[in-house]
Amino acid sequence: MRRLVHLVFSPASRLTRLMLGEKRLVVDPQQPDDTKAHMPVFIDLDGTRCEGLWAIVDHLEGNYPETPLVPENAGERAEALCWLDWAMSTFGDHVTKKIVFEKANPRFTGGPTRSTPDMNVVRSGRETLHEMLPTIGKTVEERGNIAGRICTIADLALAAHLSALDYFGELPWDANAAVREWYMRIKSRPSFRSLLADRVPGQPPVAHYAELDF
Fold this sequence. Notes:
By secondary structure, this protein is α+β, with helices and mostly antiparallel strands. Helix content is 50%, strand content 7%. It has seven helices and four strands.
């Protein structure tokens, strides 16, 4: 069976899980025991080992093209990849790492070990999140999804981050109806089921986390 070594609250791991779900590939999920590996790690049926998100994206899109997640149209493709890069770099660095990586147990993020969250860092992440949500909302209002009419890797990447934030109740859903409606559609996709089932010892999700209609 295919294997996926992943970290529960890592956006890269969450995106990989969503991609595998969209492509309907069954995997055996495992927690890491090798701290030196570049998470996530995907091992395909033929033994091909892909370490890290970009290697996995390339492998899955190249070897399982029946359900493409990167658009063929050049303009939409560029837009989707631009949003993918933004989600996994700018949004991740300034929001997810400052909130989720501070609040979650490091064994589930791969982040540095700390005794208690630095609330100054968390507040900084929250402020940036509030600043970024209107841009996301305007985009999905105009296009239907992040990079266009259909769901692409851009939607999955951003949803990977938002799902981790939502686990801890860190998303002000009432502040942006467009983002809320878009996320409700994304989290209703079958590929999202495994993420909504996530539970970690000592850190249960907020009550609405697994509810499709909040």
